[in-house]
Backbone:
């Protein structure tokens, strides 16, 4: 029989083309996917020709907050990336946080795309922080029936009446004596006045009225604002605004730009999930609730290891609450009082203070919650019902945990040396033998909790008698007969100690 052997190299060379043919479709698919991904990245990096003519509208309704600041700054970044023709910020705000307002103004001043601040629709207002944003924009416009002004910084705790407040006819050059006005308030008003005056001078608008809006809290309707050169134009809606702005020349951070907005498509940016989530968690009420849930969740997890879910939920809530608070103007004294109050409430569950720590915790928590937000801007205070609800919930939780902790303390010990104390057993030897010392105790053996123990008792007991353990000394238990006591041994079974000494 003939046997043929093929060289190893020949066998391998015969299989390589087949392997290559098998992998060829996969390689082509991978190459096509990489090519498409590269083209998509290149297309995303290049500005869209159609988007270059767009007018991007960003609507802000409500208080100027960290969420609205993030929304506007990201919208301006997108407009700059797409080289949009114009960004229109529609404002309807009672004011807001100083930090968020300055973040928005910085983004507007640095924007290469022209920005128009439009107080709309009719009935809207741009009060306080909104007035600063209107002055910072390249173009200021208002719809009929709107107003702006009242840009006085709000003092902590309400402050006093600022000089000239409530008197729109008083001149800025004739301020009242600020006898009752604190130095801190004067510093705030001076800083705000210089800030809005610099914005007015930069945009060529009325700086005198801008300073009055800060120092005297005056306001203007749309038509008077146009007459006093506080704004540039009036328009009933965004479409009319774009038509009126067509051909206007403005100065941006990237240089002069001539607007071509008559036929620009209008694209309205809607808040995404990030903006909505940020708006929710930066609400002071929600931030305080998250902080409270976080502390209680971690407390429950540390007190009862192994549940996992309370610890995870508590850690997430605590981090979200702290993240929200670092975006808000908070008082660290108030935050410290909140943590102190929560610590007292938690300690009440473990220490027998008869409510002293619990009461102190509620007082500290309530005081800290009142002091937490360091501003009187509308919409940023924590109402008393929320504080009372959180304090009551904490008290109920502490009482609930204290009840179980007290029950655990009163429950008999089931492990260790002390577990035998109070247990019952049965005498198993023929009789307790009297000790050879002066102590009137009898010794013997008994079965307690299924184990054989050496026991001693102050009186003789017969086998089968039920006894209770009263003490333990090493490997010897001290027992006492259960009620009713067992009958004593007969003299034949258990001679007394006197008989033993006589014999």
Residues:
């Amino acid at each position: 029989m003939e046997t043929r052997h093929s060289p190893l190299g020949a066998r391998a060379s015969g299989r390589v083309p087949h392997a290559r043919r098998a992998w060829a479709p996969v390689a082509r698919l991978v190459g096509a996917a990489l090519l498409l991904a590269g083209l998509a990245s290149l297309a995303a990096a290049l500005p869209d020709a159609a988007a270059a003519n767009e007018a991007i509208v960003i609507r802000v309704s409500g208080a100027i907050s960290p969420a609205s600041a993030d929304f506007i700054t990201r919208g301006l970044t997108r407009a700059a990336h797409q080289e949009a023709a114009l960004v229109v910020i529609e404002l309807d705000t009672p004011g807001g946080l100083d930090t968020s307002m300055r973040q928005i103004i910085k983004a507007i001043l640095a924007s290469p795309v022209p920005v128009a601040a439009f107080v709309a629709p009719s009935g809207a207002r741009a009060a306080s922080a909104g007035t600063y944003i209107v002055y910072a924009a390249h173009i200021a416009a208002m719809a009929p029936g709107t107003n702006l002004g009242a840009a006085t910084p709000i003092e902590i705790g309400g402050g006093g009446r600022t000089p000239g407040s409530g008197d729109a006819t008083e001149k800025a050059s004739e301020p009242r004596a600020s006898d009752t006005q604190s130095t801190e308030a004067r510093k705030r008003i001076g800083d705000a006045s210089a800030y809005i005056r610099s914005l007015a001078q930069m945009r060529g608008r009325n700086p005198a009225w801008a300073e009055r809006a800060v120092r005297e809290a005056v306001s203007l309707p749309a038509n008077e604002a146009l007459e006093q050169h506080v704004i540039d134009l009036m328009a009933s809606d965004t479409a009319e605004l774009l038509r009126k702005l067509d051909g206007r020349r403005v100065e941006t951070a990237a240089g002069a730009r001539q607007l071509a907005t008559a036929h620009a498509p209008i694209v309205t940016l809607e808040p995404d999930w990030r903006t909505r989530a940020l708006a929710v968690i930066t609400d002071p009420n929600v931030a305080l609730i998250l902080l409270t849930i976080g502390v209680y969740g971690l407390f429950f997890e540390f007190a009862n290891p192994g549940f996992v879910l309370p610890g995870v939920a508590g850690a997430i809530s605590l981090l979200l609450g702290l993240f929200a608070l670092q975006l808000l103007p908070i008082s660290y004294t108030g935050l410290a009082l909140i943590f102190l109050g929560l610590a007292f409430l938690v300690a009440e569950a473990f220490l027998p203070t008869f409510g002293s720590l619990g009461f102190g915790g509620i007082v500290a928590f309530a005081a800290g919650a009142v002091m937490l937000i360091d501003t009187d801007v509308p919409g940023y205070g924590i109402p008393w019902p929320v504080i009372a609800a959180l304090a009551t919930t904490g008290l109920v939780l502490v009482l609930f945990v204290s009840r179980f902790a007290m029950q655990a303390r009163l429950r008999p010990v089931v492990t260790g040396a002390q577990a035998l104390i109070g247990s019952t057993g049965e005498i198993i030897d023929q009789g307790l033998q009297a000790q050879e010392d002066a102590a009137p105790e009898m010794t013997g053996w008994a079965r307690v909790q299924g184990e054989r123990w050496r026991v001693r008792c102050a009186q003789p007991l017969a086998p089968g008698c039920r006894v209770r353990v009263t003490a333990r000394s090493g490997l010897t238990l001290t027992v006492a007969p259960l009620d009713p006591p067992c009958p004593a041994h007969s003299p034949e079974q258990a001679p007394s100690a006197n008989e033993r000494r006589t014999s």
